[in-house]
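Why this split exists: single-chain examples teach little about how molecules sit against one another. For that reason, every record in the complexes split bundles all components of an assembly together and asks for one structure covering all of them. Below is a record exactly as it appears in the raw files.
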Amino acid sequence: MMKSAQVVKALAALAQPTRLAIYRLLVASGPEGVAAGQVAERLKVAPATLSFHFKTLSHAGLVDSRQDGRFVYYSANFAVMNGMVAYLTENCCGGNPDACKQTNINEN
Amino acid sequence: MMKSAQVVKALAALAQPTRLAIYRLLVASGPEGVAAGQVAERLKVAPATLSFHFKTLSHAGLVDSRQDGRFVYYSANFAVMNGMVAYLTENCCGGNPDACKQTNINEN
DNA sequence: TCTATTGTTAAACAATTATTAAATTGTCAG
DNA sequence: CTGACAATTTAATAATTGTTTAACAATAGA
């Protein structure tokens, strides 16, 4: 089980519109990753701002990076995301993952 | 599918140690809810601070409240939590919820 | 009604976060 | 080596967030 502090860090990293968009873009782009500049262009974010957000995501363990020539390729790391979802699922329903879904059915 | 902005709001609400602890306590305490004072005592949080955090959680739709006499009982609302987990699961693995688990197996 | 209890609100403040512009590092091509 | 390119770092600033104290509402009970 992931530690609470690490979960908070991961949640905080994703709790920002630009960073959530970055993460989604990386997830959709596969394991080879996307160059920082491409992300900047696609999401219309200034390079310095993007670096700042990458650092936050990276520090939370949500993304990996690899340098290739002048480019830095970022990719999603699913381990932390998975741990986070597992933590939420378990702590959302008191060990019964289906409880939420049942609640959801009742309320939709 | 939950909107991205609502997901960000829910993530932000939980991305704080005290609020995550509050939510977990409410989840563990069942649908009847817990009085604010009990939460304050259990988590050792000042009343005003707790009210502030309850407001954030409430505004994100993660908790419900009901007044009973002098007491205000808070309870977890699973609908938003469930929507959030569903959003993350879908956007984490590009529509394939198992991808994360497989990645996890590889990295553990 | 008076008083104690429960909880929220308001104001002030410290700490953190997000953004920008400018300077810096590292890499490649000529 | 030089110049251009890709990205990060730094410094400054604005905005947001978390906490505390004090004041405020609402309810219950004597």
